[in-house]
Write a structure and sequence with these properties.
The complex is a heterodimer. Chain A is α+β, with helices and mostly antiparallel strands. Chain A has helices at residues 7-17, 72-80, 139-147, 206-217, 271-284, 335-343; strands at residues 2-6, 32-38, 41-47, 51-61, 67-71, 87-94, 102-108, 111-118, 133-138, 166-172, 175-181, 185-192, 200-205, 224-229, 233-237, 241-246, 265-270, 291-296, 302-309, 313-320, 329-334, 349-354, 361-365, 378-382, 385-386. In chain A, helix 1 (7-17) crosses helix 2, helix 3 packs across helix 4 and helix 5 runs antiparallel to helix 6. The longest helix of chain A has 14 residues, at 271-284. Chain A is elongated and about 80 Å long. The N and C termini of chain A lie far apart (68 Å). Chain B has 14 helices and 14 strands. Chain B has helices spanning 17-25, 50-53, 63-69, 80-95, 120-138, 150-157, 173-177, 190-198, 204-209, 212-219, 221-230, 260-281, 313-327, 360-374, and strands spanning 9-14, 34-37, 45-48, 74-76, 101-105, 108-112, 142-147, 165-167, 244-257, 283-294, 299-310, 335-347, 351-352, 381-384. In chain B, helix 10 (212-219) crosses helix 11. The chains are: A alpha+beta, B alpha+beta. Chain A binds chain B through residues 154, 157-160, 181-186, 253-255, 258, 286, 288-289, 291, 310-311, 332, 334, 358, 360, 381, 383-389, 391-392, and chain B through 81, 84, 240-241, 279, 282, 286, 304-309, 318-319, 322, 344-356, 362. Strand 25 (385-386) of chain A pairs antiparallel with strand 13 (351-352) of chain B, so a sheet runs across the interface.
């Protein structure tokens, strides 16, 4: 192997590859990044078996095609600290040391790295892009959708209900509905897709999708992402980059019946004002319950919000409403759940729909002039805290 | 060190609480021997009415023995949610007298009612008002111990039950303390009591006459506190809204266990008990932990923290099994102890409602509680801040 490559491309490729880099403890070989030359292209692969990534980088190939595996962390560190030169050259050298193993020499500017390789034979097979295309999605919309849903799921390690660590992607009616829940709150976003070939439903790890958003989609300059699938995997294909995530083989809870269809009271807030207030309330809310009490009175143009804990004290505040509510209600929410959602809405105004003190509240952007469509199709459901403890 | 400003501490102890609640709710049980406890043959007495006590029945007595002592008694399974409800009401009343209320159990609490101008007379009047208020609101009687610290107040509340009111002041303190057996001292369990007795120290008077040097020699740091307690000294503060930090159950095995299935089985049994303990205490847990001690005393713990508190046996069990299967490498080592514990506890009256609650959950838990009461002979381990 011997090639020369524009530094910028190589750095970008390595950064993107880190999306799917495994950890050494799981299986040492997964901490490796596979580099393979094919003609005038370098393929960079990484996989932790749950997800994988492939990134194509143009090169000037100076030898026959070959593949090697290098330590991914070392490679990332090198990528961040390469000297100010436009080009990087990479070639294999046969180690003169007692181990006799192959080394790779990476040179840029005046710097020379001689790197140990990992065993190519041990490297797992890279899943190939299947033929079945699901649809195409505008990348910006997909990113927005992931940003507004992935946070609502649970992390692996927080639960044994694996289905709640995923985002349920339901492709239907020229759109995809992204849905994530931790069992107490639920974020739902519907975005449009193009050329939907067949309906389908895929449950995908939320952490992997969040990383796909920040580490891959944010880095590439494509406008469109094509979705492909095979039985157990979903692929996100762009021009030079293809990401894969495994489908979680679990039943996603039936969420249709939990989304309230009727609302009694709609509280309209200025989003930032409500967010700021809730963040102040969170200071004195009890750590365990995070309870924040909201009290709306019929015909009053503000609601009373308060929190208290025996060890910290009490906070109280009034938040203005855009319109007087027609009825009175007192409801208690875990502040964090509302704050999470309010942070991920862009609209100036939001509506909190309520029915009863022990029924879900529905938060929705009031997107009248949503030119960027950044909030279109987003709703958020949050179960209250039962202060009476009827069930205890 | 300068002299501590004198404090005024109440210990409020409900009289035969569980049994009294049953008599309150069921008028035809009144003036009759009522025994609350595990109704299974291996259960123990949780509470006995004063009528039942005259038959020699006391708490922690095996139920079979109680039945033998009082065949015509009324034997009832506990209804913890009802006791919790009334307990909450009592604590609420206490908090109207001072914010410094430390809840010790469903049926007892410490109050710090110190003020710049308190006197023993005003304290007595205040105690009478508390007793009256609790009686008027709940129909239940309580005994109150009044003293300058928690240790003495707790001793005092026990002296004239039921409906007692005992003030321990500087004049009568030593006279009250001296004849009591050393086992009455906070923190003196059976083992320490036996060790003290072996040293010839059976009453608090004996203990008071022992030298500090001897006590430290025999009991280390604990010796110093014994020395102070024997003199009626105790600085421990009343900590309001005292939270239970952890609840755990563990078993040491008679012989090392190698069989994975058996260990898992035990963990599940312990999960059941912990879940029942949680519900009994009216708490939800966010952190679930397992503990494994190997034959060489190497001990590991593994834990998981979940988004919202749980008290369901099914959930706790699933976390426990998950931790055991995925996070413990057993190898060839024998296991001598297994434990299940929960922490990050939150009072169940702040129950985060779930989007997908299935109704059978509660029902299942109640069945399990029924089962667990049969194993009700283990003590819950409480650990406080």
């Amino acid at each position: 192997m011997e090639f020369i490559c524009a530094k910028e491309y190589l750095i970008r490729g390595i950064k993107i590859a880190s999306y799917a880099l495994g950890t050494r403890s799981a299986m040492p070989i997964l901490a490796g990044v596979k580099l393979e030359t094919k003609g005038d292209r370098l393929y960079i692969y990484a996989t932790d078996l749950e997800k994988s990534i492939q990134c194509v980088v143009p090169i000037e190939n100076r030898a026959k095609d070959e593949a090697i595996v290098l330590d991914g962390t070392v490679l990332s560190q090198i990528a961040t600290h390469l000297p100010p030169d436009d080009k990087v050259s990479v070639r294999t050298i046969t180690g003169a040391d007692e181990s006799g193993g192959m080394k790779v020499r990476l040179q840029s500017g005046e710097a020379t790295f001689d790197l140990l390789t990992l065993s190519l034979d041990d490297y797992p097979e890279i899943p190939q892009l299947p033929e079945t295309k699901v649809c195409s999605i505008n990348k910006r919309l997909l990113q927005r959708g992931l940003y507004q849903t992935t946070f609502a799921a649970l992390k692996i390690g927080e639960t044994t209900r694996i289905s709640l660590t995923g985002v349920n992607m339901l492709f239907k009616d020229n759109g995809v509905q992204l849905l994530a829940t931790n069992g107490y709150r639920l974020a739902l976003k519907r975005i449009e897709v193009q050329d939907l070939a067949s309906d389908g439903e895929y449950l995908i790890d939320a952490t992997a999708l969040a990383a796909l958003d920040t580490q891959v989609l944010s880095v590439v300059d494509d406008d469109v992402v094509e979705i492909y699938r095979n039985g157990a995997q979903l692929f996100f294909k762009m021009r030079d980059v293809t990401g894969m995530t495994k489908v979680i083989e679990e039943e996603f809870p039936n969420f249709d019946r939990v989304i309230p269809q009727k609302h009694r009271i709609g509280l309209i807030f200025e989003r930032i004002a409500l967010l700021d207030t809730l963040q102040r309330m969170a200071i004195t809310a009890t750590k365990e319950s995070g309870a924040i009490v909201m009290h709306a009175n019929r015909g009053e143009t503000a609601i009373q919000v308060s929190s208290s804990s025996p060890d910290k004290g009490k906070t109280e505040e009034r938040v203005r409403l855009k319109r007087e509510p027609g009825e009175e209600i007192e409801i208690v929410f875990r502040g964090e759940f509302l704050i999470d959602a309010l942070k991920r809405i862009a609209s100036e105004e939001v509506v909190l729909w309520l029915t009863e003190a022990d029924k879900a509240g529905l938060l929705e952007p009031r997107a009248e002039n949503d030119a960027l469509e950044s909030d279109t199709g987003f709703i958020y459901l949050c179960m209250p805290i039962d202060p009476i403890g009827k069930s205890s | 060190m300068c002299a501590q400003e004198s404090r005024l501490i109440f210990h409020v102890d409900m009289d035969a609480f569980f049994a009294a609640v049953e008599q309150l709710d069921h008028p035809h049980y009144r003036n009759k021997p009522v025994i609350v406890g595990g109704i299974h043959q291996r259960g123990v007495v949780a509470a006995a009415s004063y009528e039942a006590r005259s038959f020699g029945i006391h708490s922690a007595l095996p139920m079979t023995k109680a039945r033998h002592l009082c065949p015509r008694g009324i034997f009832l399974a506990p209804r913890f949610s009802r006791y919790k409800e009334i307990s909450d009401r009592v604590m609420e009343i206490l908090r109207t007298f001072t914010p410094l209320v430390e809840v010790v159990a469903l049926d007892e609490a410490f109050l710090d009612v110190s003020s710049s101008d308190h006197s023993w007379e005003s304290a007595k009047a205040l105690s009478l008002r508390i007793q009256e208020e609790i009686m008027n609101t709940t129909g239940l009687s309580c005994s109150i111990g009044v003293a300058s610290n928690k240790f003495l107040a707790k001793l005092a509340s026990d002296l004239k039950k039921p409906a007692g009111l005992v003030v321990v002041d500087d004049h009568n303190m030593q006279q009250i303390l001296d004849p009591l057996p050393v086992g009455k001292i906070i923190g003196v369990g059976k083992v320490t009591e036996q060790r003290l007795n072996k040293l010839g120290l059976t009453t608090i008077r004996d203990l008071r006459r022992a030298s500090l040097k001897l006590l430290i020699l025999e009991f280390g740091r604990h010796g110093r506190s014994l020395y102070r307690l024997a003199r009626g000294r105790d600085d421990s503060p009343v900590i309001p809204s005292r939270e239970t930090k952890t609840i755990s159950r563990e078993v040491t095995l008679p012989e090392d266990l190698y069989d994975l299935d058996k260990i898992e089985d035990l963990l599940q049994r312990l999960s059941k008990q912990v879940a029942a303990d949680l519900r009994k205490a009216g708490l939800l847990a966010r952190t679930i932990r397992i503990k494994i001690r190997f034959h060489d005393f190497r001990t590991i713990t593994r834990q998981i923290t979940v988004a919202s508190g749980v008290d369901s046996f099914r959930l706790i069990q699933s976390f426990v099994v998950h931790l055991f299967r995925h996070r413990v490498a057993l190898g060839e080592d024998g296991v001598r102890l297994v434990g299940v514990g929960v922490s990050s506890l939150v009072e169940a009256h702040f129950r985060q409602l779930s989007l997908f609650d299935d109704q059978d959950e509660l029902q299942k838990n109640e069945e399990v509680d029924g089962l667990t009461q049969r194993f009700g002979d283990d003590k819950i381990r409480w650990q406080y801040k």
